[in-house]
Amino acid sequence: MPEIPVVPALWRFPAHPASVARARHAVAEVLPRQLHAELGLITSELVTNAVRYGAGADDLVELVLWPADGHYWLAVSDPGDGKPVLDHRPPPDAESGRGLLLVDALAAAWGVVQRPYRGKSVVAGLALPA
């Protein structure tokens, strides 16, 4: 008989700035302690981008977290059509624009996957500690 795979954790939050902290805490509750800081930061940055740029006031932001292939994978989905762009040179006085730089520095891999009907998912993987 095949082994049943781990069921991914799933959350949906209102597209509101207060959801960033709620999402970070929800993810931290199911992670091994040694991954809290890095995956917490990735969660914060991706949910912030989804709330600011990908979702309207009445929309939801969806998070899925699952372990696979020696990584924890996080997908943050929103209904927006825009694709996040990694800006390697935000102005020094900019108060935003560095979120994807942080994700890029921390994640083993990340990318954008269009959803079949509406929106996109930004997926990032963080390697499990040895």
Quickly describe the structure.
This protein has 3 helices and 5 strands, in the order βααββαββ. The chain has helices spanning about 20-30, 35-55, 100-105; strands at about 10-15, 60-70, 70-80, 110-115, 120-125.
Task: Provide a descriptive summary of the structure in words.
With 130 residues, this protein is of the alpha+beta class. It has a single domain (9-127), classed as Histidine kinase-like ATPase, C-terminal domain (Heat Shock Protein 90). It has helices spanning 18-30, 36-54, 99-106; strands at residues 9-14, 60-68, 71-78, 109-114, 120-127. Strands 1-2-3-5-4 form a five-stranded antiparallel beta sheet, covered by helices on one side. Helix 1 (18-30) runs antiparallel to helix 2 (36-54) and helix 2 (36-54) packs antiparallel against helix 3 (99-106). The chain is globular, with a radius of gyration of 15 Å. The two termini are 29 Å apart.
Topology:
Blueprint: E1 9-14, H1 18-30, H2 36-54, E2 60-68, E3 71-78, H3 99-106, E4 109-114, E5 120-127
Antiparallel strand pairs: 1-2, 2-3, 3-5, 4-5
Largest sheet: 5 strands, antiparallel
> Could you give the order of the helices and strands?
EHHEEHEE
Query: What is the rounded Rg?
Result: 15 Å
Number of domains: 1
- Broad structural category: alpha+beta
* Percentage of residues in strands: 25-35%
Distance between the termini: 29 Å
